[in-house]
Amino acid sequence: MNWISNVVPPKIRSFLKRDTPENLWVKCPESGALVFHKDLEANLFVVPSSGYHMRIPPKARLEALFDDGAYDSLPVPEVTADPLKFRDIKRYTDRIKDYRAKTGVYDAVTLAAGALQGTQVTVAVQDFDFLGGSLGMAAGEAIVSGMFRAIEKKTPFIIFTASGGARMQEGMFSLMQMPRTTVAVERLKAAKLPYIVVLTNPTTGGVTASYAMLGDIHVAEPGAVIGFAGARVIEQTIRERLPQGFQRAEYLRQHGMVDMVVPRADMRETLGRICRLLTKAPAQAA
Predict the structure, then answer these.
(1) Which residues pair with 198 in a beta bridge?
(2) Are residues 253 and 213 located together in one domain of the fold?
(3) In which element (H, E) is residue 146 found?
(4) Is 165 domain-assigned?
(5) CA nearest 165: which of 195, 126, 198?
(6) What is the DSSP string of 75-129?
(7) Do 112 and 179 fall within a single domain?
(8) What residues pair up with 35 in beta bridges, in sequence order?
(9) Which of the two residues, 284 and 226, has the higher pLDDT score?
(10) What is residue 161's predicted lDDT score, i.e. its pLDDT?
């Protein structure tokens, strides 16, 4: 027992006691350095000392992208909640409810529209914190809806991908989102509208095998893991040691699968410039 417990009256004890938030300090997965959460948030969730790009919430990403942080949230179409009545250790419907409460979004893809350095754009953001950013019916429907909205409004379409692949709880309904989104991409291109893909960590599985690799321009965040199957699975299959940095954004840029690797702090300016070039819009006044 200490003197606070023995001597100080209960009301004063309650005043002296402070609750410390669990996420006050964040550990960098690369360097192990501890970063104050507020500093990390102010730096767009990039660790200042190592440059490691941590996951950033969709809201923070959108605010950092659009002019003055202002944008319109677009409605996401509702879909059948549980087409296969799937259950593992808990019901799929209960799992979805838990993730909606945890993240505050309807599903893995969020849609928004607004001005990016003066150019009107439609944007989709895939949230890895929602069931690993998995591609299911709701996510597929949101992406298709966003692309059709871009066609209607004649705006470039930008998507930030982050996913572990297709959602197993929806079986073939999930896999069908690959050709559906691919057809929507073709319609976007037929309308001669820019389709820009920003690959973030990680982008894998069926997402990489469909809309994530069909962009007019592919931009990647530093260090992002991008691929179809995991490196360990590939090594076990081909029985060979993979090159250093395999499936990382920088490796893919060197081998022609990614056009550029852009730090998050420069992403807004880079995407704005790309949109102006592809739409032949005049340069912004300095």
Answers:
(1) 160, 219
(2) yes
(3) helix 137-153
(4) yes
(5) 126
(6) PPPP--S-TT--BSSSBHHHHHHHHHHHHSSSSSEEEEEEEETTEEEEEEEE-TT
(7) yes
(8) 26
(9) 226
(10) 98
Q: What is the DSSP pairing of strand 119-126 with strand 195-203?
A: unpaired
Residue 280 pLDDT exceeds 60: yes
**Phi-psi sector, 231: left (phi>0), alpha (psi -120 to 50), beta:** alpha
Instruction: Please report which helix (H) or strand (E) contains residue 187, including its range.
Output: helix 177-190
Pairing state between β 157-163 and 109-116: unpaired
Q: 95-126, pLDDT tens digit by residue?
A: 999 999 999 999 999 999 999 999 999 999 99
Looking at the structure, do residues 59 and 49 belong to the same domain, yes or no? no
User: Model confidence at 138, in pLDDT bands (50, 70, 90)?
Assistant: very high
Assess whether 185 and 217 both reside in one domain.
yes
Q: Do residue 102 and residue 50 come from a single domain? A: no
Domain holding 123, by residue range, is: 55-279
pLDDT at 199 over 80: yes
Question: How many degrees, rounded to 5, is the angle at CA 247 between CA 25 and CA 178?
Answer: 100
